[in-house]
Amino acid sequence: MSFRKIKLIIMATSCLVIVTACSSSNIEPIPSSQVSEQESSTTVKPTTSVESTSAPIVEGDYTVVGSGLRIPWSIEFDSNTIYVSEREGTILKIENNELNRQAVRLTKPVHHDGEGGFLGFILAPDFHETGLAFAYHTYQNNGSTLNRVVMLKIEGAEWAEHRILLENIPGDLYHNGGRIAIGPDGHLYVTTGDAEQKNLSLDKSSLAGKILRMKLDGSIPDDNPLPDSYVYSYGHRNPQGLAWTKDGTLYSSEHGPSGRPGGHDEINVIDSGKNYGWPDIIGDAKKEGMITPIYHTGDEAIAPSGTIIDDKGRLIIAALRGEAIYRYTPESGVMEVLHKGEGRIRDLELRDGMLYFITNNRDGRGQPSNIDDRLVAMKYK
């Protein structure tokens, strides 16, 4: 494809739209749908991607930092170097306008199927000294689909498994969770899905449908709410966003039910030991001992994924089914569409006034262009 044609594609997809939602049950301008991210679909084979590229494609405040990504899942910054996990089981390193795909050697191979694969990835706080990072991935054992959290170490131009932190997290074709983040307390937080077994979410002895909390060596913190348990909160369906405000408040974004009723994707404030109600309550429903979300999408399905918080305390949310970037203001309860026209968005990061995000149009549910998937940067306003 010529550079002129690429520029036309970028110009056509780079309009910025900001609208205010009418209410929590009708997010404009996304049309009503009963189908959420969890609906079954056929996986699209990703196109072959070059290992390096020329200078980024720039159009005003909009830059395609990298194209031809293989179903990217999470973004991580190390100064000016960007790492992007790819669901098939690789890590893309972007440095000095070059893209280099790095292999990941694991003792248990990545099982890439449905929503599973190589998902969450973050660098250790002491990465420069140790070369360590953390990852969450799907695998199979005796025919069962499971998830695990491992510590990785960079070795030359590839990554190798350094330590197993936690295994045997229930998994399935869908609802694997997968977001990992280091909190202000220095501990590792992990989101897990219900593995399409609703009863597991309320079962405090199961690791499914939870937000887990562990020390960076994989041990259980003494102040976790349940004795000798990784469980930090429970009653979740498929959370994929974790973010903290400056005062330490933890927010999570979570997929609501598929089918009828559909939609009811959630934003929750996460407190230690609390029950967030899945599958017993959704939307505004209340039940003793269960936490109702601070916001939900009503019948609309946006399938929220990566979530961050800006310097004004507003949540910026990547949406898959919603095919947009949303912004939620806790004080007003308003959800607005910040940007759309890219298709499915999986994760995002703010850096030096720029909003970076990755598309997921090749995950089997999107309509990919011939330069998808992409890492894009644009001015944050």
What does this structure look like?
- The structure is a single chain.
- The chain has 381 residues and is mostly beta strands.
- The protein is built from two helices and 26 strands.
- The chain has helices at 3-13, 127-130, and strands spanning 19-20, 57-59, 62-66, 72-78, 81-86, 90-95, 98-105, 118-123, 132-141, 144-155, 158-170, 180-182, 188-191, 210-214, 231-234, 239-244, 250-254, 266-270, 295-296, 304-309, 315-319, 324-329, 334-340, 345-351, 354-359, 375-379.
- The strands form five sheets. Strands 4-5-6-7-11-10-9-8 form an eight-stranded mixed β-sheet. A five-stranded antiparallel β-sheet has the order 1-23-22-21-20, with no helix packed on it. The protein has a five-stranded antiparallel β-sheet with strand order 2-3-26-25-24, covered by helices on one side.
- The longest helix is centred in the N-terminal third of the chain and has 11 residues, at 3-13.
- It starts with a helix and ends with a strand.
- Mean pLDDT is 88; it is low at 1-36 and 38-55.
Short description:
With 381 residues, the protein is mostly beta strands. It is 4% helix and 40% strand. The N terminus is likely disordered.
Q: Please state the structural category.
A: mainly beta
Q: Share of helix among residues?
A: under 10%
User: Could you tell me the number of beta strands?
Assistant: 26
- Main β-sheet, spatial strand arrangement: 4-5-6-7-11-10-9-8
Mean pLDDT: 88
Number of helices: 2
| Biggest beta sheet attributes | 8 strands, mixed
